[in-house]
């Protein structure tokens, strides 16, 4: 591929990503976020209550902020409420979807498979995050670097998933070529 063609391809991807990100985030995601948060709360609350023995009585989703960008998931235990900010955590779903939709060269079946698998993995990480954040809340309260590190990780995950899932055949071929090029007996 010539340098000018590569530059044009990258710029076209960036443009498509911006369009899809705008549609996925502002047009769709932030509007359905309170419903997604409720589903996360049901999954995480069930794990916390029935497998970890936490006395969760109920949960509530408090939608807030412009386009629900400050949505909270609140677990209620006897005499206490435990809010967890889910908007920033869960927004990586829309970022991942925009990346996959903007990627050229994926046939429809492969695109849907990459999209579905990545979204499922992100959903599982969201449930896991909420379970861990609730379970270890006392420790996290005394170590502010833990939530910051986790936030940075969750910002990065959609990009890692996109590279791994959308480009897996190319990555596998490149690794295989690299192994063939290695001198033997080293």
Please summarize what this structure is.
The protein is mainly α.
Please give a structural write-up.
The protein is built from 7 helices and 3 strands; from the N terminus they run H-E-E-E-H-H-H-H-H-H. With 186 residues, it is mainly alpha-helical. A 3-stranded antiparallel beta sheet has the order 1-2-3. Helix 1 (3-50) packs across helix 4 (108-135) and helix 3 packs antiparallel against helix 4. The two termini are 34 Å apart. The model has no long low-confidence stretch (mean pLDDT 88).
Largest sheet descriptor: 3 strands, antiparallel
C-alpha geometry = globular
Low-confidence stretches: none
Strand order of the largest sheet: 1-2-3
Number of helices: 7
Question: What is the C-alpha radius of gyration, as a whole number of Å?
Answer: 20 Å
Summing up helix and strand content along with how strands pair, one would put the structural category as mainly alpha
Q: What string gives the helices and strands in order?
A: HEEEHHHHHH
Instruction: Say how many strands there are.
Output: 3
- Ends apart, CA distance between termini: 34 Å
- Averaged pLDDT, please? 88
- Strand fraction equals 5-15%
Helicity level, as a percent range?
over 70%
Summary tags:
9% strand, three-stranded antiparallel β-sheet, globular, 7 helices, 186 residues, single chain
